[in-house]
């Protein structure tokens, strides 16, 4: 059964934005920038770009075919892909033809494409090679309320572009009313409001704080199912593992009475589309999602929302310059958005798994913009590449703290990306130029750039690719788990996780990318295919800079040492030293106490390790860890010496020896 074009058209016409189509187009024709605010689900993301497209078509069809693109940014790649396929379906075209999407490492567009959904990060990248964004006739910055780092940078960039290109038009779209800030920023731009059609949502709080929000969420779903009238349920959790666990528990409790559908970013696209399928055979649909369902994707039919009050969020400590992903309480604004998801079809209920007192006293009013919660090394590089060398004069909507910018600048000096002279920051070096071309964090880019010197760029390419895609190890519950862990152990490398990832990649290639081989070894075929694709793209960038793609002799004693040294040359700021207890580590840079993540393949505790990621949960973990030798620090990263960053006394002592 396929939905017909007319059936879909009927649905499109019933969306709130449709009633304001003419008004919107007139507004756009007489202004360069328009700000549009509308309730989630009112049809902004799917309809507005189509309206624009029709208008552009009529306006100057064929006059300037190269300036024809309508671009619409999304903070999340899943949203960009999902919305693009939906719009392609609405327009009755194949995805990648007239309607396409571009996300990091994946370009699904063609010469026919006239409407392109892309992540905000991708548009920033495009601005690096096309500073005036000449290909676009109209740009739509969607989900502006999310205030992602990339969207904030685009605001500043676009202000300049708009001044230089009177023919370009900009639509800024947002779900909540933080519009005042936008209005002030784009002074003179009119604000258009799409009235919401929300039904009342009853809010219920717990009487006591919940100890385990996952169990509480599952319990609440079971109660809703038993005691509440029909209507679908949307549960907000923080990430893949939690979501999978909750899904299993719900199925365990309710079995075939419900359709349980997970939604998170590393889910294959076909599975992601499943959230839109109506439940089959009188069953209740239960969607368990990350906060992507908060405003980015709207699922029709939801009547009950379960909100534990948490999300995985980026946090940055400007003192230690450590950025980490942390499960932390959401804001009141987010909680309201989540509740709103229950009232789209009819009056609904939102079950908040925290107390009313907690909502009022503990939750902050608004989530802070990401730019205030990030390590800005990458941002400084990007802006530099975009021709913004004076950060002070850049029009930030919210300016980052000077100490954060200072930290970013000195990290870049340590990485050799910026000149520094007598404490003054200078220009982008050749290395810095190259680093900014890689769509990667500066450390990984640095590691790739130096890898030919260690005669192991082939290996570092594979490792970088593996680090850039979702976790490749599949870990099912129950019986199969032991088998999966054994399979994983077979790839284990005695020196650590980076080399284990290299083993997996090599084994995959030796087996010609066979999906059966992946299945038998509990390896995600999808993750591996992405890694292969990412690797090819990185190879292209390396070749552009004449960086040699090479390997040393596999049997030589130094083969693995070289790889580990190259790792260190990029990630020398992420080193930890075993402390006196012999079971914990202290990070060299800022003396944080950390533990090896349970997923780590090392079955001993080396004195020094380099790590890829700092994970804060109930404990502090370092994840993806490889054993290095302390004396390498001096050879590979002599910058360490004058780094005041190294607060750890033990580290200093050893380094000074
Ligand atoms: P907004 O951007 O204002 O939040 P959207 O344009 O995303 O609204 O959504 C408009 C409608 O389109 C919603 O009812 C949503 O459920 C529906 N929709 C979006 N994507 C899909 C899809 N892939 N399948 C079915 N319906 C979809
Ligand atoms: Mg939207």
From TrEMBL:
Phylogenetic lineage: Eukaryota, Viridiplantae, Streptophyta, Embryophyta, Tracheophyta
Molecular-function annotations in GO: ATP binding; hydrolase activity; RNA binding; RNA helicase activity
Residue span, Helicase C-terminal domain: 220-387
Biological processes annotated in GO: mRNA processing; RNA splicing
Cell cycle is among the record's keywords: no
GO CC, one annotated term: spliceosomal complex
Domain of life: Eukaryota
Keyword hit for ATP-binding: yes
Enzymatic reactions: ATP + H2O = ADP + phosphate + H(+)
Record key words, sorted: ATP-binding, Helicase, Hydrolase, mRNA processing, mRNA splicing, Nucleotide-binding, Spliceosome
Species of origin: Raphanus sativus
EC number of the protein: 3.6.4.13
Residues annotated as domain Helicase ATP-binding: 25-195
Name of the protein this chain belongs to: RNA helicase
């Amino acid at each position: 059964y396929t939905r017909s074009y007319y059936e879909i058209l009927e649905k499109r016409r019933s969306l709130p934005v449709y009633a304001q189509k003419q008004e919107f187009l007139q507004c756009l024709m007489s202004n360069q920038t328009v700000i549009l605010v509308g309730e989630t689900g009112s049809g902004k993301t799917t309809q507005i770009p189509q309206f624009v497209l029709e208008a552009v078509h009529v306006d100057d069809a064929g006059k300037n075919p190269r300036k024809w693109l309508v671009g619409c940014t999304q903070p999340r790649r899943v949203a960009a892909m999902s919305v693009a396929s939906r719009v392609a379906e609405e327009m009755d075209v194949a995805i990648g033809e007239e309607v396409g999407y571009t996300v990091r490492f994946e370009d699904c567009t063609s010469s026919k494409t006239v409407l392109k959904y892309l992540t905000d990060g991708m548009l920033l990248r495009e601005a690096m090679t096309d500073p005036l964004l000449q290909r676009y006739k109209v740009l739509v910055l969607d989900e502006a309320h999310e205030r992602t780092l990339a969207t904030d940078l685009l605001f500043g960039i676009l202000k300049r572009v708009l001044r230089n290109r009177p023919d370009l038009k900009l639509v800024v779209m947002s779900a909540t009313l933080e519009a005042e800030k936008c209005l002030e920023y784009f002074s003179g731009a009119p604000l258009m409001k799409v009235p919401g059609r929300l039904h009342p949502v009853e809010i219920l709080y717990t009487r006591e704080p919940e100890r385990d929000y996952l169990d509480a969420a599952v319990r609440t779903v079971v109660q809703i199912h038993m005691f509440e009238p029909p209507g679908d349920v949307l549960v907000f959790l923080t990430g893949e593992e939690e979501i999978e666990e909750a899904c299993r528990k719900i199925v365990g409790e309710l079995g075939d009475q419900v359709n349980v559908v997970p939604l998170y970013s590393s889910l294959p696209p076909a599975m992601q589309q499943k959230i839109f399928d109506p439940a089959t055979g009188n069953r209740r649909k239960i969607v368990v999602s990350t906060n992507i369902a908060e405003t980015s994707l709207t699922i029709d039919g939801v009547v009950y929302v379960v909100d534990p009050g948490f999300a995985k969020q980026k946090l940055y400590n400007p003192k230690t310059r450590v950025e980490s992903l942390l499960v932390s309480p959401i804001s009141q604004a987010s909680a309201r958005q989540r509740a709103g998801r229950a009232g789209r079809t009819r009056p609904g209920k939102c079950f908040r798994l925290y107390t009313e007192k907690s909502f009022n006293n503990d939750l902050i009013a608004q989530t802070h913009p990401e730019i205030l919660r990030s390590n800005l090394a990458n941002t400084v590089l990007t802006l530099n590449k975009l021709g913004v060398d004076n950060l002070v004069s850049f029009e930030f909507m919210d300016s980052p703290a000077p100490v954060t910018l200072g930290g970013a600048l000195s990290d870049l000096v340590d990485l050799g990306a910026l000149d520094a002279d007598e404490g003054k920051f200078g220009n982008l070096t050749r290395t810095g130029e190259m680093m900014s071309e890689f769509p990667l964090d500066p450390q990984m880019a640095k590691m790739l750039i130096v890898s030919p010197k260690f005669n192991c760029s082939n290996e570092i390419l594979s490792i970088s690719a593996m680090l850039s895609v979702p976790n490749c190890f599949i870990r099912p519950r129950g019986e199969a788990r032991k088998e999966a862990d054994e399979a994983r152990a077979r790839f284990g490398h005695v020196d650590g996780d980076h080399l284990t990832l290299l083993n997996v990649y090599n084994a995959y290639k030796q087996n010609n990318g066979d999906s059966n081989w992946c299945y038998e070894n509990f390896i995600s075929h999808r993750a591996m295919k992405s890694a292969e694709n990412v690797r090819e793209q990185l190879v292209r960038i390396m070749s552009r800079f004449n960086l040699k793609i090479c390997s040393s002799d596999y049997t030589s004693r130094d083969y693995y040492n070289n790889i580990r040294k190259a790792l260190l040359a990029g990630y020398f700021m992420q080193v930890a030293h075993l402390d006196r207890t012999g079971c914990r580590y202290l990070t060299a840079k800022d003396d944080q106490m950390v533990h090896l993540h349970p997923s780590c393949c090392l079955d001993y505790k080396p004195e020094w390790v380099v790590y890829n990621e700092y994970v804060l949960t109930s404990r502090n973990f370092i994840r993806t860890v490889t054993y290095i030798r302390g004396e390498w620090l001096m050879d590979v990263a002599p910058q360490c010496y004058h780094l005041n960053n190294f607060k750890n006394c033990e580290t200093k002592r050893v380094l000074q020896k």
